[in-house]
Design goal:
Number of strands: 9
Order of helices and strands: EEEEEEEEE
Bound molecules: copper (II) ion
CATH class: Mainly Beta
Strand order of the largest sheet: 5-2-8-9
Helix content: under 10%
CATH architecture: Sandwich
CATH topology: Immunoglobulin-like
Structural class: mainly beta
Strand content: over 45%
Radius of gyration: 14 Å
Oligomer: single chain
């Protein structure tokens, strides 16, 4: 998922979807040769900046899926921004994508 911020600086605060019980914002980084993941309160989106979410870095993790995600399917995700408010996006499920990859450990 790529955020291109064409307006003023903003901050992604949270995300929710009817497809799961919760969505968390995580960041993965190398720490002494180990991949570590930590939960973030939000993601800063600088004015005119681009922020990329991908496995191995910033990502959103979906907990408590109400039905298995199938490649090719999609589900609505509601993003909440500090300034822009609520924005609804459609997430496409890809085989082994960041959205479905839940095999990394906390
Ligand atoms: Cu995660």
């Amino acid at each position: 998922m790529i955020f291109k911020n064409t307006g003023a600086a903003d901050r992604l605060l949270s995300a929710t979807t009817a497809a799961s019980s919760s969505v968390e914002i995580h960041n993965m980084s190398m720490d002494g040769g180990m991949m570590r993941m930590r939960r973030l309160d939000g993601i800063d989106l600088p004015a005119g900046g681009t922020v990329v979410l991908a496995s191995g870095g910033l990502h959103m993790m979906v907990f408590g899926l109400k039905a298995p995600l199938r490649a090719g399917a999609s589900f609505p995700l509601e993003l909440r921004f500090e300034n822009a408010g609520k924005v609804l996006v459609q997430v496409n499920v890809e085989a082994n994508s960041a959205a479905t990859n839940q095999n990394h450990k906390h």
